[in-house]
Amino acid sequence: MQAEADEEVSSPIDAAEFIQSNLDLLPVPAFPGIKLYTPHPGSGLRRLDSAVDEDGDSLPPYWAYVWGGGAVLVRHIQAHPEVVAGRRVLDLGSGSGIVGIAAAQCGAASVLAAETDANGLAALALNSEANGVVLSITGEDLTAGAAPEVDVVLVGDLFYAPELAVRVSAFLARCVAAGVTVLVGDPYRAHLPLGTLELVAEYEVADFGEAAGRRSGVFRFLG
Hints:
It is built from six helices and nine strands, in the order ααββαβαβαββαβββ. By secondary structure, it is an alpha/beta fold. Mean pLDDT is 92; it is low at 1-10.
């Protein structure tokens, strides 16, 4: 009996079941046409196993929140649906899936959502289903490979750490060399490679943890 109890205690938590049971499915305040599974103070996200970085340190559950870079991309896509309409789109570092969902809602021919956090993959599947859109979801680290067969790459909030910024920039350069349009959304974080970017538009959007909006940019990656 004790062995059975120990086995039950040590069993991993099913991320999809946890998200559905402990997060609320709510419209995003700034984008009411999009619903996401949203944490609240009692959600207990720490009970989920965390993803780790290159050094083995636990990463926060980035997938559970809407960040400024994703928000500014959604704002731009909704204002200019022709950016994605009829095109094959990659949402790199998809997190909650808000950017990919917006692209699908604005007429993208297909959306590939890439996310390396296993819990984020579960959230992506649930959020896309809740919004009635189809996302192709991959847990592969695409930044390690060649440019995928897409027309547009959308990148939000992937320049928050120096090593990640270097790796992502190298991948985006390969995409540009292959003829892919790359749009980056970012609230001017420290490691944003401004020297390789061309500003397309600016919007005031809220970053996670901030009530007020901040100036955030949509940029074309030049390679």
